[in-house]
Structure prediction request, 418 residues.
Amino acid sequence: MNRVVVTGLGCITPIGNTVADFRNSLFSGTTGIAPFPPYPEAPLREAHDKTQGLRFTQSAAVKDFDPRQHLDSGIVVATDRTTHFAIVAARQAAAESQLTNHYAPDKIAIIVGCACGGRQAEETETAKLYTRDARVHPLTVVRTMASAGASNISIDQKITGPALNISTACSSATHAIGLAFQMVRSGMVHAAIAGGHEAPLTFGFLRAWDSMRVVSPTQCRPFSANRDGMTLGEGAAMLTLETLESAQARNAKIYAEIVGFGASADASHITQPHAEGAASAMRQALADATVTTEGACGALEDVGYISAHGTGTQANDTTEAAAIHQFFGDLAPHIPISSTKSLHGHSIGASGALEALATVLAIHEGLLPANTGVTEIDPAIQLDVILGSPRKATPKLALSNSLAFGGLNAVLALRPTK
Prediction:
């Protein structure tokens, strides 16, 4: 099997529209969570004017992003905001790694996660239909389909290999990166662009989540003693993957190595997480890491950092902590852990990609991000949650967890390149 490394990064996020800006916000603890309304566009601003009745007043929206500065007008018109994010983030990653200059287009895969599709186009056109019986825009179908991001990255980069969208709620991007990793490792493709994108902050989406009573009326505080829910977000992050051998041969910059992937289903409840499911996904990721062709790893004691799903809800944080204790046993209280959702919010299908990006940067720089905005940890958690400032450390192995509604779990195992 091939060893698989990350050689390019790209992002459009609430804490930065370049990797450099994302990195600075990540390690300085600068949050992207802010009050409504996040959008300058008139239809969306009007929708957000209706949010006074919501229990929450904040979101983590992408700022200072004008698609017309990056994309041709025809592409802007034919695509939704989520696809704009996807194309631009993929461009950044592809430009850094120069994949398309070194691999045949049919040997590069595009595997991305998007759970919500083109929410803005869908709600705008549906409102016209149901309130005025007006004709919907002729491009509504291609704007709203969840796979539009994968298709448009393919068109933009002239890549003809497998192009797939994964929709598994909040684990979509992590499943996508894991599948891309397996495809490159097996030799099915030589390289891949993988990640996730989402732009779901519409009036209908916010009202739907408000009805579930899991969104924080204040701000997301993962693992905090006084946590009161999640903060909804948006954005995109993309990673380029290729074999270690090829990357070294062309002297490419290598950020980190992906060594394992685990996935599981709780088979328990559609919204209530189950500790055994999350523990199973972590177990599989570490077992998978032991098949690395050189320098095998995967022992429990190798794990030196966990990038937690950490949504800030009572149910998720308690269950994720229980899963870590269940799997790691006596080692659990000594493993550094943090969630970055207090910075960039919960971007649903894209969240695993933003967190994988943060984990890759942590490994590359030997600096573990802090669990921002929390001063007192829930005593029931009993984990080494990083507070205050980032912690200097170079973990032998790191895990990035995604635990989705529907009991769909995905975990990546990453390490510094040896």
Summary: The mean pLDDT is 94. Residues 151 and 263 are 25 Å apart (CA to CA).
